[in-house]
Amino acid sequence: MTETSHLQLTKASYDTVAEDYDRLLRNVLDGKPFDRAMLGVFAERVLAGGGGPVGDLGCGPGRVTTYLDRLGLDAFGIDLSPRMVAVARRAYPGLRFEVGSMTGLDLADGSLAGALAWYSTVHTPPHELPVLFAEFHRVLAPGGHLLLAFKAGDERVRLEHAYGHDVSLDVYRFPPERVSELLGRAGFDEVARLVRAAEEPEKTPQGYLLARKPLTCR
């Protein structure tokens, strides 16, 4: 499958499920203490570095974007799905949401103090992760932080029904060690890593990785 085709399928699938995805998951962070903890550490690190714009890359309907806003960050969202962006704009009219692809962000070099990819890499074939990580590195300012959340493992799962709709998605589970290695090759320094056990209805452990773009190039 080409990059173009998997992006098209991802966009179409999330356009289809956008309303029900938002309805079902809007308050899911309330029951996710590890998620809130990692987001809190990320926010503290960004603010300690002086703050600045934070991109929620693959923001979906904006539930995590608004959480970052409540933590004091200057957060905005970007998503591949126009319908997801429409839902986010309606739900959180005080925040900025734009349609865009993580493979080619319409952001200037070094323009972000922080970047978040909250389960938004799960439909990316493993061999294409270096493209995303290089793009994240490009848009982050020196000293900026990146937080990833992903499904831990080492397999591809085909998803044909989700959130009450037929979809066409590949879901990838990544070994945390491999994610860390690829981030290092892209120029990041790992700051922290967490892997927690699956909780219902999850089928796999969940991984979180906080990384930092060095102040000077190496």
Automatic annotation (TrEMBL):
Residues 56-144 form the Methyltransferase domain. One of its GO terms (biological process) is methylation. GO terms for molecular function: methyltransferase activity. The keyword tRNA-binding does not apply. It is an enzyme of class 2 (transferase). Keywords: Methyltransferase, Transferase. Its EC number is 2.1.-.-. InterPro entries: Methyltransf_25, Methyltransf_Superfamily, SAM-dependent_MTases_sf. It comes from the Bacteria. SUPFAM superfamilies: S-adenosyl-L-methionine-dependent methyltransferases. This is Class I SAM-dependent methyltransferase. It comes from Streptomyces caeni.
